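Dear U.,

For the methods section draft, I wanted the exact inputs and outputs in one place so we can describe them consistently. I've listed the two proteins in the order they'll appear in the manuscript figures. Please don't edit the token lines directly; just add comments below if something needs changing.

First protein:
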Amino acid sequence: MKYFLIFFFSLMVMLLQVPTLSAQWEPDVRLTYDDSTSHTELNNGWSITADGDTVHVVWFDNRDGNDEIYYKNSIDGGINWGTDVRLTDDPDSSYFPSIAVLGTSVHVVWIDDRDGNRELYYKRSLDGGTSWGVDTNLSNDPAWSWRPSVAVSGSYVNVVWEDWRGSYMEIYHKRSTDGGSNWETDVRLSDVLYHSCRPSVAISGNYVHVVWIDSRDLHFEIYYKRSPDNGVSWETDVRLSDLPESSNYCSVASSGNHVHVVWCDERNGNWEIYYKHSSDNGVNWDPDFRLTDDLGSSYVPSITALQSNIHVAWRDDRDGNLETYYKRSTDYGATWDSDLRLSDNDGFYSWRPSIAASGSCVHVVWIDHRDGNREIYYKRNPTGSQGIEEAEERGEMKFDILGNPVNQSVELSVPSINPACMPVNICIYDLAGRSVFRQELTAEPETVLTIPCTHLPPAVYCIRVSDSQNSWSSLFTVIR
């Protein structure tokens, strides 16, 4: 009778608490500790990226008397962080870094003044950020280069930036086909007698997707261009926004055949976040979808996509000061959850958020002024990529809990055919979303994984099994 009541109560808790697990954000974490000013990139590039449980962050700060590029990583999904690593070391300023990762290859681009004018530079790590190669000048032109964005897929590294080598700012592209060892010549993507700037790039399969803001229509609009062959050839420009008011600060993400673009515009009398979606690699586009609707200004959105899950972060002044807000969709942008305020610093400001997702975790960094100067802050949602219901419905990783409730350990039966799950990451969260167990194990087909839980007090928990592509989740109850 005792066990039945415990299990009945736990089942009720499970039914009540499942929706909150997918929206649970952990407390803010301060990443920088110095008296200087630290900056993330704008939304066109990314200041944070993740692959598996390794999270990478780049920023620039002036602790050394001039702006330099710094890097930091976490190898346990954002729980613990390593020390700051200075990536640049020259007497001139380096700023606006953008980062991309694939496995253990980490790629960083930034703008650098060391050559007497602003040039586009590149650096890479092939061991997950432990060691770094030499700096490489990618633009090498007397004109200014500015606002880079980088994306990687397989051995292809694609970089876009705005460049002043003509009479106007134009969008340029450069690629490497061997993981950053060698680079091809620059390709001019925009060619109009007006300014084109703030490009953002994403890659999915062989498709490279680029968006930027363009003034050819006598005010800024969002334009899109794609390459269907990893950056060899480029199709014609496509105008995504069509308004009498200006559109600005666009960001692009892609996953499979789906392309997602966010930006902010003034069609409603103040800056609001808008979203646009293509389900066929950019051939056709759905109508604009308004993401924010409040009396404050919402701007500079950052977007990431992982399968059907879309995550957007932006800065918002609806609360009287700048705060970081978040919104997600779990159905390719068809419907969206309500806005969620991530920072809470009355009297201070939080801005320039950058967002990334990997496996079951969503990661956000931003600039924060709560400490009297600008510092980099971080926040994560360990169950945010998909809710528990969605993870179970996918069926791509189907484990079974052998007996529930449990006492000393959780036993998982491994599917007979599941090659993508070897090895796998095992994570257990309490109902507040806090990680209480994390380990990488080998999941051989038709075996049983045993996860000890003697350290866990009686309660309901979420267990998540994931590899680099898929995940499976379920609830279980610990009794004594």
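Second protein (the one for the lower panel):
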Amino acid sequence: MGVRQNLHQLEQAFVEETIADRERREALQRQIVTRSRKRELDKVHKKGSARFVLLCLILVATAVLVTVAMFETLYVVMG
């Protein structure tokens, strides 16, 4: 009986190790997906911020140009 019991323990340990290995692989895969998604979101946020700053600069430049053109036109008309 000692050999059978030892073999059964060895098989049981193998099954437990296989299950633990599968769980580790699944956890690692979830971490990879999570990190990938976070990097993608960070990249999208960074691009969005840059576009917003560019839009603000264009709006300010447009306002300045329109103001300058308006006063120059007023000077020409009144002068």
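Candidate sentences for the figure legend, describing the second protein: DSSP finds one helix and no strands in the chain. The two ends are 116 Å apart (CA to CA).

Thanks,
Y.
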